[in-house]
Fold these 3 entries.
Entry 1:
Amino acid sequence: MNQIEGYLAMAAGKDEVHNGDDITVKVDLAIAHDITGPMAVEQFKKIGVGQVFDMKKVVFVLDHIIPAATVEAKVLHNVLREFSKRYGVKLYDKGEGVIHQVIAEKHRLKRGSILIGADSHTCTAGAYGALAIPVGATELAATMATGTLDLEVPEICEIRIDGKLKPGVYAKDVILHLIGHFGTAGFTDQGVIYTGSLMDQLTMDDKMTISNMGIEMGTMISYFADPDQSVGRVKEVYTFKTEDIPASVACPPNPGNVVRAADLSSTKISQVVIGSCTNGRLSDMLVAAEVLKGRKVAEGVTLLIIPASVDIAQQMEDQGLNRIFREAGGVITSPGCGPCFGAHMGLLAAGDVAVSTTNRNFPGRMGHRDGKVYLASPRLAAESAIAGTIVSPGQVVPLGGLADELEV
Amino acid sequence: MSWKCKLHGRVWKLGGNVDTDQIFPGYAMAAPADKFKDYALAGSEIPDFAGRVQAGDIIVAGENFGCGSSREQAPVALKAAGVGLVIAKSFARIFRRNAINIGLPVLVCDLEQQVENGQEIEVDLVAAEVTICARGEKIRATILAANVLQTLEAGGLIAKVRKQLKIS
């Protein structure tokens, strides 16, 4: 068995499991937010059990439309408030941040634990070794009643990346490069284990960025290997060298349409978004602040800065980043999902072009169907905000030595 | 809801990589449940689908249908609008499971190039066989797993769980 199979076997109470086995696993945490949670609650009530399987193992977070932008959104908040009160489950309803960041900060699971979430980016938790499986509202409701999840043991592949990232290349570029290579259905119904010498150099923030976008390759499970255990037998090993990974951009209409940033012809932009469960952490904000310090956002560009959690927002304030962003002409919003999924502040009209550190660029994702979204790293996004066009890292602000310049 | 193993309907063709933002756009996500059907495919190349679909119609798509978000509003909206079945060359995992869990059948079959919009087809879900009515041609689809058929027969996952937990 490989590492994922080993933990699945443990969760299923079996000695061994293999690809194709139908198993039932015990769930350690079940999570949902203001868009999926109310539907899960409605389905849960239809089952007709009086309580959730374990009050401490069900958590809701309001993150998609908070503060409520419409009356309908507020109704969804109230559904979860009422449920949380009646069933005694934890609800984060004070704008604490994006669900995946809040779970990482307040409910971080041990390696090998089973996390299921009614949000496709639940896979973010694979960064710290959780087996994090995204589900829909009905499947979550079933787990809320039973405490278990039925699944088929997936095929597991290994992605091995060796080396050190080149200057101007970040974790975001690694995952964009992989999605471009494997395609948006590259690992449908499969699990991926990340290994290789690059892993030793990645921070937890970096790993969360990579794990977060696993679903953009279709993965069922994205998981960073435990370096102290052997990986075990996998279906296939794909090997990459960091020297072949360039600064990358995913162009419309999907995250698999990836090009080298250097190959993009000059494209005028009207919005830059730095934030989300993909790239809204302190390290992302530090990179953006290094670029934006003492510089101005270009005419005709709206720069949105969206911390992934309230803890991150506090650190940004403590470290003086907010002043840098405001002086550059950026709008700092409250923690949450922002315009990433097209229903909260910062939407695009037809003809708008955004560079965004978020995870999806499907047609209409951030507003109008004819508004375009290019996905990239915070570094590339920040430089593009200054240039007013999509640029490569280093084109506006020289690479290297920036950390020393930044006095915050 | 009653389980029907034999379906008959008109074809709506969609291409490959139809993501959940196209099936059910983000701006509609806070809509009340009784309005979901109005947004079915509102973000796709057929934005007026909800007003034109008839009960029992069948979507025939290419690869990776339903990729992206876990929003169950997507299959719920299709079903509420009247879609009886989605056939695709392949499905994204979460959409496929969501559809089955809410009792919307999905079938894997590379059919897109063999049918025209508006053509009538007959589908036997248990036999995993598609018949193009006009020419009587039969095309094999991938057999549905036993547990998938069980869920569909029960009318969805909630009914199945109630049975498992012996709640009557």
Entry 2:
Amino acid sequence: MSEQQVYEPRIVAFLCKWCSSAGSDLAGVSRIQYPANATPITVPCTGAISPMYIMSAFNKGADGVLVSGCHIGDCHYIEGNYLARRKMKLIMELLEFIGVEPNRFRMSWVSAAEGAKFAKVVTDFVNDLKPLGPQDKLKKAEHT
Amino acid sequence: MINIQDIRETARDMLTKGEVRAVIGYRRGSRGMLAEPTFITSAEQADELVWDPTCFHNLSLYLVHDRKFLAHIRKNAEAPVAIVAKGCDARSIVVLMQEHYFKREDVYIIGVSCEGTGVLDERKLAKHLNGAQASNVAFDGGDFVFTTAEGEKRLPAREVMADRCLECRIPFPREHNIVFGEDKTGRQLEAPFAALTRFEAQGTGARWDFWSHHFDRCIRCFACRSVCPMCYCDECVVDSITFPVTTETTAEDKANRIRWIERSAVRSENITYLMTRAMHLAGRCTDCGECERACPVNVPIRLLNNKMEREAREQFGFEPGASIGGPSLVASFLDRDPGDFIR
């Protein structure tokens, strides 16, 4: 008898180079235990994230998408995260509008010093995603 | 009431004096009562112009076409173009100018107020006429008067008006050089975003059922994109036409090029296309409703754009097409933008 497979959600995490990416690094070097479900993609700034990236991640089978950047006021490019805040709010509303579960998309501010917070954000996200099951609404059908 | 002779007179006058090189307006079409866009370049043609409830097209699209054509033949505009614009169309023109697509002096806006009514929705009319064909339609106060084979038929405008006109907040072209008709701003027949609010009252599951049904039906004809004055990009994200293919390009390169959205009409791709389009129109769409009218399979595209419009308005206090000098929605921010959704 084979072992029962446990569903592990796949998260695509867009992390800004200056804060959240360093924050995730800190979580690693501090040896904080957190789920390995998130695939990090480092971007120069959250303001550089096109809503298209998020749609594309879902399209390619992500169960959840995390966007994380510097706290308001701490952006390396002064205003990138302000712009991101607007854009991400819009795409979040739109996803919810068409009937995608609100918990599939998440945004957070994690600074380079907040390794523990990054671990918590990912842990919470994974815990919220597990009851939702695999995301198949926006996922591209596999060609057979 | 707008007297069509006034519009014709204005057009004739400007063309005679050579103040404009063309007038973009509406004329009687070849299909029943419907009006069609026309481009008038000589004073004699001015009598072709019409103004009736079937003038639903957003003519600012042709300003974009004109601009693209001029760029193609590498010429500068010698004189402005005059355009007949309703409230929503004038807002589209403002957005285009806001984005520096052309300058204010390149266009002469002949504003027409929608007054007490708006434009016709053909689909609604078809239900009322029971198969009969109308050959003409005219504004008459709060009614539309149709001429059919069985004689005249009078219908209250609100029964056959386009949904967007019922909800329209500003049925008056605020940006204009000359304007005809009274400003009846605030004459709303339905609350703004009424259809959207009704739709949103449903739960997540019901919303998904609705949208997945419609996303399945999209045939990706791109009529919505072609008819939209805001979809002016030379290269749409949907079709990567500038991907250079040379003799050196390997099959692998071709296969691995970035395709954000596939062109095949399957649900996941249709969703990505329509959602991306809604995002690109956020803060730019002026709710002219052309995408939904042009859609051959009746996908309720307007609902998506409406959603973005309302979010922009309620969350960020942003009104598309309000001023030429104003910032755009996604290239600006305020300190008080909502951020409580961020952990």
Entry 3:
Amino acid sequence: MINLIRSLGRWGLSAFERLGRGHIFLMHMLAGIPGLFLRFSLVVQQLFSVGVLSLLIILISGLFVGMVLGLQGYNTLVDFGAEESLGVLVSLSLVRELGPVVSALLFAGRAGSALTAEIGLMKSTEQLSGMEMMAVDPIRRIIAPRFLAGLISMPILAAIFSAVGIIGAFLVGHGLLGVDDGAFWSQMQAKTDFYDDIMNGVIKSVVFGFVVTWIALFEGYDATPTSEGVGRATTRTVVHSAFAILGLDFVLTALMFGDE
Amino acid sequence: MMQNKSTEIIVGMFVAVGIAALFMLAMKVSNLGEYADEAGYQVTAEFQNIGGLKVRAPVTMAGVRVGRVADISLDPTSYNAEVTIDMYSQYDNIPLDTAASIYTAGLLGEQYIGLEAGAEEEFLQSGDVIYLTQPALVLEQVIGQFLYSKAEGE
């Protein structure tokens, strides 16, 4: 019994400790960002590996998600004789929800896990401590550029996802199912608001980019420096990012669209 | 160095594609294109009952969209609904005695304002008021009246 309480207490303390470490890490990282504008090539390098390399999965998934939405939406709407509303259905669901959320989940799987593995391996091969020996702050030199790159890439990827998804839905809806293209676009434009829908989607994706990159970098930086530890940290990145994305999505949606 | 340069080019293209996607969402998907048209003029109309009319609802004339509802408020003296309409600037030759009614698109669709042109020589200008209005048809009232007349007939 005592042992149980003791282990529970230890577990709780270590959870708080990790939470505290994570936030101190975040503060260090944010403090390192202003210095990056002097060495922007570091960020560009990371934009390539974080953003550009995630582009393919985002493009393909976006296209297919849009096509499925077009198909499913059509099948439901045609019962009510409202298949012209397909454009509204697709654009609102993509721009408000699926674009930011699905692209953030893919981003966590593609870029987040890669970041964790990379940083974790740097730690386990003692490259990070080597940098510290040379009086180079690894958080400023290694972590901060990756964080900024993640923060920049995520909204771009989400916008591309939504745009490609809408094109996919248009291809299926107009090309395959014969929805009138004028009604498709005009109803979409009448019901989708730039500030309320698209900008809120962009805000969501910025928040997700922030959280996912933070989790990925912290897990890598905090990983046990063994091959098993790095593997476990990578798994945790994906799982925790998914929780954070879906939980935050509910909170953000309630804040943005709750009062309608 | 060469490697570095091509990375920069690809990253630049990536950012450009992102901006293009956002631009497409703004112009093709959302109503941002309409905001550019907003340099039109505003008129107001007073309705007895606006039913389910909402801000941003379309304002049409002969089925063609000529503006949108900008604001809805309650007149404190007459207890009527005061609806402000943003008219598109290219429709600047709408007669002064135009009538406005609230219709429903389809049986369950959203409500919109339909304008019917009058015969006046003068045209509506910014700040003018549309006097001829017809309130929204509230379905419950219509059904109520129908049942009442039915019961009376028996």
